[in-house]
Amino acid sequence: MKYTCAVPMCQIDQLIGIAKTAEEVGFTSIALPDSIFYMEKQSADYPYTPDGSRMWDADTPWVDPLIAAGAMGAVTSTLRFYTNVMKLGSRNPLLLARQVGSVANVTGNRFGFGVGIGWAPEEFEWCGQPYAKRGKRVDEMIEVIRLVLGGGMVEYHGEFYDFDKLQMSPAPSAPVPFYVGGHTDVALKRAARVGDGWTSAMMTAAELAETIGKLTTLLAEFGRDDVPFEFQAVCIDKFDVDGHRELADAGVTDNIVMPWVFEGLGFDAPLEKKQDAMKRFADTFIHSGWQD
């Protein structure tokens, strides 16, 4: 099981230091969150809290995850990065293809594209995209982005996107993996059908095991049970070595963690305290040999 360090709601001036430390102590990846803006009033519930409220406010710091990946990639050499997850529905697929391809190239193929739809109608409408039929539109977006990133002269004629032959160069020298987020049946089917992996929001170990079981069945139904597939997990109730062993046994391949939060330091802890927490976490879980 690999370990990824998540950086939601981190101060922007800490990201470079966190990336350097993550690579030094043995994390495989950095998971980069996505938030475009904070609307004063929300017209829909946030789907990953019991009461539908957001876990952040108007002053919480965010940075575009693709820009962050490029900046953090410039100061590292082996650390990988992936969006966790980028909300596609409010964006344009051709512009995203240009950005994703650029990040893949400048990081030397150390980038994975975690994708979701988005939950807030305001993000769609205020960015000029319709909220209706968002799922079908995102399905087409994934097809378009993958097609363009594959290189060469391509064209696409779908229900929502239509363009004649074009080419973006250079194409990444290796395929960009797509990790599909979401907990609904539709999202799980999308992940099994087109994804190189599935990424969770906050879930218990029991919920993760159940969901991985569903995805394993779906992969077989789509004839993809023999392809490499990542199960990226954010677990909220397993914090010791025995618990991590349970997650690995359940099929988790990538454990997404925030060491400083696990130690009760909070999102706004000083950089040095976060780095110290990352080192302690690595000693306990990454270098302890429990997976040998």
Overview of this structure, please?
39% of the residues lie in helices and 17% in strands. The chain has helices spanning 15-25, 65-73, 93-106, 121-126, 134-149, 185-194, 205-221, 241-250, 259-262, 271-286; strands at 2-6, 29-32, 80-83, 86-87, 111-116, 154-157, 162-166, 178-181, 197-203, 230-235, 254-257. The strands form two sheets. Strands 1-2-3-5-8-9-10-11 form an eight-stranded parallel β-barrel, surrounded by five helices. A two-stranded antiparallel ribbon has the order 6-7. It is globular, with a radius of gyration of 19 Å. InterPro entries: Lucif-like_OxRdtase_Rv2161c, Luciferase-like_dom, Luciferase-like_sf, SsuD_RutA_monooxygenase. This is LLM class F420-dependent oxidoreductase. Keywords: Flavoprotein, FMN, Monooxygenase, Oxidoreductase.
Residue runs with pLDDT of under 50 for 5 or more positions: none
How is the largest sheet built, in terms of strand order? 1-2-3-5-8-9-10-11
Tell me the strand percentage band. 15-25%
> How would you characterize the largest beta sheet?
8 strands, parallel, barrel
Number of strands: 11
Task: Give the helices and strands as they follow along the chain.
Answer: EHEHEEHEHHEEEHEHEHEHH
CA-atom Rg in angstroms? 19 Å
Tally of contiguous helical segments: 10
C-alpha end-to-end distance? 11 Å
- The percentage helix is 25-40%
Average pLDDT: 97
Sheet/helix structural class = alpha/beta
Shape from CA axes? globular
